Amino acid sequence: MISVKNKNIVDSFDKIRPGQARLERILSTAYKWADSGESSVENVLRRTIKWKRLVPLTACLVGAIALSTFALSMVAEAKEYKEAVSFFGVNELTTHGLTRAEIKEVYRDITTGRFSSNKTAEILDKRVGGYEIAQNVYSKNDLENLWNSLKNAHLDSAYRIAYNEVLDSNLGFEVLQSSDLNRVDSNGRVIWSATFDNLYIDRYVAHGEYVAVYGYEPTWSSATPTIARVGLVRAGDGAVLWDDKLPTTFNWVYVKDVVFDADEITVFAEGDFKTAIILKYDQAGLRTVLAENIFGGNIRQVVNLSDGYLARLGTVSGEERLVKISSDGTLTDVFAYSANDTEYFIVDMADFGGRVYLSTYAVPKLREDESSAGGRVEIAAILNEIFESQVWEIPTEELTKRMREHFTAVLLVCDTNSGIPQEFYSVSGSI
Hints:
Elements: H1 4-16, H2 20-35, H3 41-90, H4 100-111, H5 118-128, H6 140-154, E1 159-168, E2 173-184, E3 190-197, E4 200-207, E5 210-217, E6 227-234, E7 240-245, E8 253-261, E9 264-271, E10 275-282, E11 287-293, E12 298-305, E13 308-314, E14 320-326, E15 331-335, E16 342-352, E17 355-364, H7 380-389, H8 396-406, E18 408-415, E19 421-428
Helix pairs in contact: 3-4, 5-6
């Protein structure tokens, strides 16, 4: 008789022992080993051990291959991302708010000519800057045409400014050592580099075979006068033709704009933030001081007229006006572009094809009893409405609608002899 305890053991064995078919396969395999002369336990174990030794070796090999593949994919991803960032930089596209994957997505979308990504439309729209595209939904052809126009416009201004700093042990922080004006190709590769020691380059102006650069020598004490400099670079090979310090008796001097005129360069500078200094240089760097005048505002921008210059002036209060300056540097006329019910704000100026174009935007003029909202005159009317209503939670769609109804983009086409507008183009709801 089997005890209850032993019966449980037998039952358990019945549950775990192999089935009849499996048992026959095991026995059949054992017979084959016996026939081959490997019936000894030693031989069987040796075959098993050899196989066990191969298992970790195979696992290591598979792991190495997987690791190598992963490493190569990481290198390829990093290379593509670097190329994408360089592509954005060269073409002056913003990466603000984009993830790493989105930057690569836009890069591939443009370079492959697909133009199918919504992100591409978003980025190119930001790059346009003030030019309104009528349709809200971009087609592939729209994006491709927009990209081609931006790319072609960019080819004429393929210059970049780079700043080189070194640690000043006396001051305890890094200071400017030099600035480089770099000419780059369409892929962002540097073609040539023009270096200016101890000069902070503010801007450059390219014109035909030459590029003018201007800026100032950095100082670390308000007691040290600020010295302004202007230089001329040959566009073909980057040779610095001359580099001049502006003569002055002022404490602070800054170059505000440079205008090419035939074989001469006219430099508009400002002394102590109020006095306009006008100088002329020939291509060899020979300087002539034309005038020092107070025009009643800070010079923002200058363009050529047929017998002088048209300068955009601004004030601390935000007021802007245009002045006509003769070729000898004297003020000859003042223009205020405004109407009874409209205020104009000048954004940019350009002389092209015998005309001067003023890019402006217009907003309704404030009443005399209306607040200027702390100097934000262009949006003061909207801010005043919000403050009066005390409604602070405004949906984005509603606020956008108000802003579009408030602004009007206006292009003024002026005569180069007088500076007086001859015609204008306006687009409501734009700036």
